[in-house]
Amino acid sequence: MDNIYIEYNFTVSPKEPATEILIAELGNIGFESFVENENGVTAYIQKSEWTQTILEEIFVINSDEFSIEYNQKEVEQTNWNAEWEKNFSPIQVDDLVSIRAPFHENPNLKYDIVIEPKMSFGTGHHETTHMMVQHLLKLDLENKKVLDMGCGTGILAIFAEMKGAKPLDAIDIDNWCYENSIENVARNNCSNIAVYEGDSALLVNKKYDVIIANINRNILLMDIKVYANCLNDKGVLLLSGFYQEDIPVIDAEVSQYNLKLDTFIERNNWVALKYNKL
Ligand SMILES: C[S@@+](CC[C@H](N)C(=O)[O-])C[C@H]1O[C@@H](n2cnc3c(N)ncnc32)[C@H](O)[C@@H]1O
Known about the structure:
The protein is α/β, with parallel strands linked by helices. It folds into two domains: 81 residues, 2-Layer Sandwich (Alpha-Beta Plaits); 154 residues, 3-Layer(aba) Sandwich (Rossmann fold). The chain is 27% helix and 34% strand.
């Protein structure tokens, strides 16, 4: 294996969702490791996989919606795990849930979620994940059939199983997230979660009591109709991955399907909405 890498430092504005899209696109063309920071992300590709024009294939860099600047340099192989370990501190939600890596000490809260994210989204650090955990904390999930759409690391499905949900489906469009969710499901000894790689096309003839979807505004606007069709009467739909100003457009879409806004949580302008099916 080549031990020379090309390191790219990307400065991304606004940081989300562009950084998430950028990471997904870079992952598709052979970038191997990603270390997020407050300005964007540092990404690495093996020199043998690299070409001078490689970034021409990256759609998000050419998008008018975001500003993405970068510089690049050649580096020796790095210990990627050590890199993200430095950047991943354990977190706690409402003094009840701890989200940590295997090498962190267990703070012995009521729920202990162990996640090794590698490059999947979902360490609990992002506002949207944090708020979804808060919504789930308040729900009675005992024996509820749950779908975690856009599962990332699998964190929300794992937490739902810890709260008694079963059976659960966790779906992500990204192969890396699919693989990583399988690993994290096993790491947390969850036995009721089926993980799938794909999108809402997998939801034909499926029914759930609770659907969790922390994705982004545009995907949600496309797929809310499918989720609503899969929701049992009196079911709950949790949506996140968008900003406070997106609420009217999301609400206009959801309201068409017999769902009523119950509560919403806001953190740093990100929101997570809870809908009840009538
Ligand atoms: C914001 S992350 C959420 C991860 C995790 N559920 C959490 O709350 O931390 C969104 C995830 O949705 C996935 N995704 C994007 N588009 C999707 C689609 N159309 N269907 C399913 N998953 C999708 C991405 O790969 C990403 O892992």
